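Task: sequence in, structure out. Protein: Phosphoribosylaminoimidazole-succinocarboxamide synthase.
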Amino acid sequence: MSGFGLAGPPPAPLITGWKHLRTGKVRDLYTNEDNEILLVASDRISAFDWVLPTPIPNKGAVLTQLSLFWFELLADIVPNHVISDDVPGSVIDRAVIVAPLEMFDVECVARGYLTGSGWSEYQSNSSVCGNTLPAGLLDGSQLPQSIFTPATKAEIGDHDENIDFAQCEKIVGGDTATELRGLTLKLYETASEFAQSRGIILADTKFEFGTDEDGEITLGDEALTPDSSRFWEASTWKPGGAQPSFDKQFVRDYLISSGWDKKSPPPELPNEIVEKTAARYEEAYFRITGSRFNG
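Result:
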C-alpha cells in the first residue's frame, strides 16, 4: 500500500504546453519540449509517511515562495535548479520552472539541535549517524557544532533511513560525499544565522542535490521550508522536550491523539487543525521573509 492510501495519487491537472511526468507526495512534475521541468507544489500534506486526505490552503504557494527566497539568499554558496518563476497562470505562485538534474541518492541533512530521530538515536548510543556527541544532552539541546546526518531516499510510503558518512560515501563516492557534507553544513549555518536574526531557530533541515548538464553540483527540490526543516520559536526555546514549531506540529499532534494506527489510510483533518496549520505556515513565511503572504 502506498502512502497515498487505497485511492492512490490524485490525478494531476492538465497544463497546456507541459506533459505530466510523475506525482510525488506533495508535488506534481511536468516537462516541456525544451526538457525543462515544471515543479508544482500542491496543497497536499504528508505525515508519518502518509499523504493525508485533507489539503492545507495555500501551502503549496507558501512553500514555493519561501524556497525562492532562500534560493536567492544562498545563491553565492551553491547554484540552484531554478530557471524561472514565470509559470502558467493555473499554477501561478505555486510552481517554478527548473533545470533537470541527475539527483544524488541521499538526503543531505544538517542538524544544529538534537531532536526527532536524532534524539532517539542519541538516547541509545550517544551518537547520531556516526557523529559522537557529549553526554547529558536533552531533547532540544543545541549541539556543540552542527553535524551532517545523511539519509537514504525512500519511496512513497516507506521510511527514510539515517546512515553514517561511510555509507554515504559508498552511495555517491568519497569525494562527492565530502563535497555534499561541506555544502550542506555551510548552507545550514548561513541559513541558521539568518533565521536567528528573525527570532527563529533552525533546528535542522534537509537538502537535495544533483548534477546539472555540465556535471556541476546543484541544489534542487525545495529549500528551508517548514516541510523540510524544523523552525522553532527562539524566544521560548527550552531544552528538555518538544519545542513550539512552525510546521506540521498541529497535524502530527492531532493524528497521534486520534488513535490512528499509522498503517491504514489516515483520517480527515478537522477544520480547526487545517486553519491552525495554514496559519503556522504563513507565519513562518512572514517571520523569515519580512513580508505577509498574499494568497
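The longest strand covers residues 200-211.
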